[in-house]
Amino acid sequence: MAFTMHSHSGQFCPGHAKDQLEDIVLHAISIGYKTMGLTEHMPRTELSDLYPEELDTDPHASLAELAPRHEAYLVEAQRLQAKYASQIHILIGIESEFIRASYGPLIEKLAAPACIDYILGSIHHTAGIPIDFDKAMYIQAKDACGGLEMSLYQSYFDEQWVMLQELKPRVVGHFDLIRLLSDDPARDLKSWDGGRLWEKVLRNLELVASYGGWLECNTSALRKGLADPYPARPIAEEWVKIGGKFTFSDDSHGIAQVATNYIKGLDYLESLGVKEVWTLERTLVEAEKHLREKSVAISDFRESLRLE
Prior knowledge:
A hairpin with a 2-residue loop joins strand 5 and strand 6. The chain is an alpha/beta fold. It contains 10 helices and 11 strands. Helix 5 packs parallel to helix 6 (196-211). The chain has a 7-stranded parallel sheet with strand order 1-2-3-4-7-8-9. Helix content is 38%, strand content 19%. The protein has one domain (2-304): Metal-dependent hydrolases (TIM Barrel). The chain is globular and about 55 Å long. One of its GO terms (molecular function) is histidinol-phosphatase activity. Its EC number is 3.1.3.15. Pathway: Amino-acid biosynthesis; L-histidine biosynthesis; L-histidine from 5-phospho-alpha-D-ribose 1-diphosphate: step 8/9. This is Histidinol-phosphatase. Keywords: Amino-acid biosynthesis, Histidine biosynthesis, Hydrolase.
């Protein structure tokens, strides 16, 4: 049973993604998805946290639209969840924008409604500056961390550590997103900086494992030109070594990206010795929602996909 635990739509992430959410769900059904996690980006609260695409017109209006759009997302997600229940199991989540520690209470508040099944814990900023938007902003973030890429990486994993402690997200999004626009995305983190950076990586992995969180194998890295999905092989190998569990995601931003590079992603996991991935299943017991972890064999995942 194929699935994704990370997805976006142009309806609720305009300018960032494409297509209406219902059309994306229908496409997912058509190619064999049995579970789909909806994880639109959470609203931000500061003008300084808007992306350049949101500053092109009226920044104050862009900021004001975020909270109502989030509420509309929850309404639409529940409608689709009910409408297509016989065809696909829709999970409702939110992707965090943990730009600074003060966002923690807001994220916990946004995750409180009964319809929310999980938090996708992600870091897209370091020193308050996006690190995956474009190279120019990546360089700004590097400069804000002292001008050294090593320092930027250190800050990224330190800020991720704070996010993990605060939220303990069920799913950790694109664990090593920091390498996307790096000068050397394939560099060996184990030996860089005398191993001090690698100690931060291990610290974060061990924390996720300690509370039972999952790392997503996120295939969007492949469509963006990286050699490995997120996380890169050395991190993935360490995660397997400590007994960590993987979930699976396309991180799609529209119909065209649903299940992109999924076969390569599954091959990658199998090359690590991984035989199963994990998702969630929602059940009702005496009208009360319960979530259970569900294992999916990679062989079954492959069989359910209907890709051209």
